[in-house]
Amino acid sequence: DTAVSQTPKYLVTQMGNDKSIKCEQNLGHDTMYWYKQDSKKFLKIMFSYNNKELIINETVPNRFSPKSPDKAHLNLHINSLELGDSAVYFCASSRLQGNEQFFGPGTRLTVL
Amino acid sequence: KNEVEQSPQNLTAQEGEFITINCSYSVGISALHWLQQHPGGGIVSLFMLSSGKKKHGRLIATINIQEKHSSLHITASHPRDSAVYICATHTGNQFYFGTGTSLTVIP
Q: Are residues B97 and A102, on separate chains, in Cβ contact within 8 Å?
């Protein structure tokens, strides 16, 4: 009965590849988020979606694109992966924008 | 300068000690969040507050809107409290995160 789940947990890939990370929440929340946590453990918000509308699009490269097929899913697509994309990516959800957030377990992406 | 500053960056305490982690922010906010990141990497939301004080078990969070300051207190600390504690603010569509406070509680 995981509230927020992400797949895969680990992702190792070569530079230049395209990859996706999936996120699903079963809490009935209206807002979902993607965060990047770098090697220095600094957490930075990348995107949030509210009812399938992009609300926040921080200054991330356009190689990153969120895709929300429905309210329960927010997938992260990354094109032309670069070494600097190596990080842990967390998905989260909240009932409304800015409310208490529930985090997924994270996906550790390593780009070789 | 980061919009959210936390202190201390690192903290080591003996089991049973009272712990305080501070968070100062420079922008107006709708709410302030305290998050806990376990050594295994999982992140849990501890508090969301916009005024006053909240308490969950041994954890207490306070906020002073006028001074743009929040504190997280842990009473009777325990080794299982060892984690990184992250302060984050939210206003409109903007989220700002502190760099975290790494707490180690020694038995």
A: no
